[in-house]
Amino acid sequence: METYLETERLVLRRFTTGDVELLVELDSDLEVMRFLSGQVTPRDEIENKVLPGMLDVYARHSGLGTFAAHEKVTGEFVGWFGLQPTSTAGTVGVGYRLRRDVWGQGYATEGTRALIAKAFADGAERVVADTMAVNTKSRRVMVKSGLRFVRVFHVAFEDPLPGTEHGEVEYAVDRETWSAGA
């Protein structure tokens, strides 16, 4: 297992084609998917779209992608963290998806802060994140991670999730603010 990044309690690595089961299990929890799709991600979608898409980002964007997160002590898979390319030069997006049984243990903030620091160390000028406005837990993680509220925006969805009417929120931090102790 080649390590992408280590934190105090986590080891992040690239996903491989052998990780389908980890993603199926993660995306099978409706509470985990509540603010994302509101439904379980079918296995065939993970095998044929989600995982190949992750692997493609590694090939096209050096140092970026979605990374499997494991507890350092036990080696147990806890979810993933992502540092993704965006359409804006110098800007990357950060995000995460964690198993419900590890929520509330500080992993989301720990992993997100580490990815933000890595992004700036690797030359990014700005890091952004977004979630549904009603996703208060993720919004708290964004703030604890050093991101700042930027805006509320609305996206039209064919089959909107409950709470969509309140919009999406964007949080961000630039290199200067982060360096000043965000």
Task: Tell me what you see in this structure.
This protein is of the alpha+beta class. Helices cover 30% and strands 29% of the residues. It is built from five helices and eight strands, in the order E-E-H-H-E-E-E-H-E-H-E-E-H. Strands 1-2-3-4-5-6-8-7 form an eight-stranded mixed beta sheet, with helices on both faces. Strand 4 (77-85) and strand 5 (91-98) form a beta hairpin. Helix 3 (107-121) packs across helix 4 (136-144). The radius of gyration is 16 Å and the shape is globular.
Order of helices and strands: EEHHEEEHEHEEH
Strand order of the largest sheet: 1-2-3-4-5-6-8-7
- End-to-end distance, in Å? 32 Å
User: How many β-strands, per DSSP?
Assistant: 8
Number of helices: 5
Largest sheet: 8 strands, mixed
Mean pLDDT: 91
| Helicity level | 25-40%
Low-confidence stretches: none
* Strand fraction: 25-35%
Evaluate the radius of gyration: 16 Å
Helix and strand composition category: alpha+beta
Question: Would you spell out the secondary-structure blueprint of this structure?
Answer:
Blueprint: E1 3-6, E2 10-14, H1 20-26, H2 43-60, E3 65-71, E4 77-85, E5 91-98, H3 107-121, E6 126-132, H4 136-144, E7 148-153, E8 168-174, H5 175-179
Parallel strand pairs: 5-6
Antiparallel strand pairs: 1-2, 2-3, 3-4, 4-5, 6-8, 7-8
Helix pairs in contact: 3-4
Keywords for this entry:
182 residues, alpha+beta, eight-stranded mixed β-sheet, globular
